[in-house]
Amino acid sequence: MLRGLFILLLCQLLGEIAARGLDLPAPGPVIGLALLAGGLALNARRGGVVEGGEIDRTATALLGSLSLLFVPAGVGVVQYFDLLAAQGLALGVALVASTVLTLLATVGVFLAVKRRTA
Amino acid sequence: MTWRLWVYLQTTPLFWLTATVGAFLVADYAAQRARRHPLVNPVLISVALVAILLKLTHTTYATYFDGAKFVHFLLGPATVALGVPLYKNFALVRANALPMAAALLVGAVVAIVSAVGVAAMLGATREALISLAPKSVTAGVAMAVSEKLGGLPPLTAVLVILTGVIGAVIVTPLMNALGVRDYAARGFAAGLASHGIGTARAFAVDPVAGVFAGVAMGLNAVVTPALAPLILPLMVR
Q: If you average pLDDT over every residue of chain B, what do you get?
């Protein structure tokens, strides 16, 4: 568990350093994600096993509680009750319409391109 | 005596950290009992529970966040952790590289243009429009984009969470109604439109959908910060 957590933190730290130091457009944790996947692939090539290992168990545990991690930021809504009361309708309609359109566009293009290239 | 104990407890990080995890366990239990019905969203319920508790106890968000920040911090390592399912399903991801690239570009543009366009038509202010633009990207990245372009980062965080909840609620009935059975495509759309909350929902529905949602979330976190500064000046003045 501890080693798994250390690897996750280390990848994030290296990602943060790369993002700031090299002025990359990608955020630190996303670079860390790529570093971790790449590191696991290298490790597997040298005979390491990922499935059931420490990093696997730590990642699975953390991702199993992913929804919890959004609660603190979501509670921030209490600071914006006034603004939401004034513009809530515009923002609410925009969020729902945009989410539906984005889902439709994404899944539509994905399936169309997949059919054409298959 | 009890009053003084309460006054003390209310200001400690421990109390609000415990309340956050406790509220989530209650919400997740409800979601489980509802057999993961999309409307019984655990994030939405826990946020409502905590918000009511803050209101009843006259606690400020700053005091609350002093405790909740320990949970919030784990968003970074959790994003990195998506590298594990990505590695495990890499062959499947690589086989879908072309559909993903096309869907990523179109989806990211539609997410920004449709949100800003609809809100502008309905009379939202300039500040709100800028804060709204990166709403489909994961919270930390969206806040950075909002700040750079002149929005209100904490408002962006709230809009991001709302987008995540809306996507997580809508995606399953919408995809079922359309008859989409390709879980790679369903997951990719969920992660692109509604980031980590959509990804959590995708993992609850299907493991392959979860992997593609995680990849979409990661890719959109790179693409939207590049696209938003190009699109916004055309729509907001």
A: 93
Q: Which positions in chain B touch A40 (Cβ < 8 Å)?
A: 83-84, 87
Q: Map out the domains of chain A as residue ranges.
A: 1-64, 71-118
pLDDT digits 0-9 by tens, B69-104: 999 999 999 999 999 988 988 888 899 999 999 999
Identify the sign of the CA torsion B24, B157, B196, B165: positive
Which chain B residues are Cβ-neighbours of A85 within 8 angstroms?
Answer: none
Determine the pLDDT at residue B14: 93
Supply the DSSP string of B175-217, one letter for each residue: HHHHT---HHHHHHHHHHHHHHHHHHHHHHH-HHHHHHHHHHH
Q: Which of A67, A78, A80, A104 to mutate to test the interface with B (most CBs of B within 10 A)?
A: A67
The answer to whether residue A78 neighbours chain B at the CB level (below 8 Å) is yes
Residue B194 CB neighbours (<10 A): 35
Report the Cα B59 to chain-centroid distance in Å: 24
Q: Are B187 and B212 in contact (CB under 8 A)?
A: yes
Instruction: Residue B75: list chain A partners with CB under 8 A.
Output: 29, 69-70
In this predicted structure, the answer to whether residue A118 has a pLDDT above a threshold of 80 is no
Query: Under an 8 A CB cutoff, do B76 and A50 touch?
Result: no
Cβ-defined contact of A72 to B141 (cutoff 8 Å) = no
Q: Per-residue pLDDT tens for A84-96?
A: 888 889 999 999 9
**Helical segments of chain B, H only:** 2-10, 13-33, 42-56, 61-73, 75-81, 83-88, 90-95, 97-121, 126-132, 139-149, 153-178, 183-205, 207-235
Is A107's CB within 8 Å of B175's CB? Answer: yes
| A53-70 as b/e: b if 16+ CB within 10 A | bebbebbeebbeebbbbb
Helix (H, G, I), strand (E, B) or coil at B23: helix
Phi, psi of B59, deg, nearest 5: -100, 140
Residues on chain A touching B125 (C-beta within 8 angstroms): 87
